[in-house]
């Protein structure tokens, strides 16, 4: 009986003592005396070299590509303005003065049309105007077709495919035209409280749109003539 009691006593006292010794042993072996380690040792790893920074210049998109030949320099909004002010000719060249004061000419087909049908032109990632304002005017946003000369002249609001809708070219008076009011965006805002085009244009994009290298300086044109 006494022996059984002794064994039970040793058993009851001994087990917790063994457990405590074991736990403390693990703790001090794994972590020494710091209190912050997990006891898990970081395996030695082969270090991965950091990628070398790419040194090539970022590819230029849309309007920002500098052409090889002599070109004039003007913002998109001012170029469209010069075209509208000249009476928006389709094939005849129109005159404009570039940012350096150079006298230049451009045409709708070569220089204006692309401003409405090319993506990535007004800013990186910009949709083309024709993404929303396309030839199927009954479905196009604002029933406006910016994809062709005839579509632009026919204007907006052609819900039933009317031949003539609302004039967006101000009858040749650029600053009062709806087109100007929708694409001129000082501080990213239109002056008439509507969303600026292309829809989604960030406030950081320039008020007059991208700077373009377009047209032909007049001196060169004249020199080329006999
Ligand atoms: C992602 C679609 C989208 C794109 C791209 C887009 N527009 Fe628009 N456009 C709209 C919407 C939506 C409205 C109506 C906005 C409002 O009333 O505030 C609108 C309105 C207009 C209007 C006024 C029409 C009217 O009758 O009131 C003109 C002009 C216009 N856009 C021209 C353009 C031009 C030019 C571009 C390209 C530089 C362009 N849009 C790109 C969606 C788009």
Descriptive overview:
- The structure is a single chain.
- By secondary structure, the chain is α+β, with helices and mostly antiparallel strands.
- It has two domains: 1-32; 62-224, no CATH class.
- It contains six helices and five strands, in the order H-E-H-E-E-H-H-H-E-E-H.
- The strands form two sheets. It has a three-stranded antiparallel beta sheet with strand order 2-3-5.
- Strand 2 (94-97) and strand 3 form a beta hairpin.
- The mean pLDDT is 86.
- Heme C binds at residues 116, 122, 127, 129, 131-133, 141-142, 144, 146, 156-157, 166, 168, 178-179, 182-183, 194-195, 197-199.
- The SSE string, one letter per element, is HEHEEHHHEEH
Main β-sheet, in a few words?
3 strands, antiparallel
What's the arrangement of strands in the largest beta sheet? 2-3-5
Average pLDDT score: 86
What is the share of helical residues?
25-40%
The Rg value, from CA coordinates, equals: 36 Å
DSSP summary: helix tally: 6
Q: State the end-to-end distance.
A: 133 Å
Strand content: 5-15%
Uncertain parts: none
- Work out the count of structural domains: 2
Instruction: Name the hetero compounds present.
Output: heme C
Shape verdict:
elongated
Provide the structure class: alpha+beta
What's the total number of strands? 5
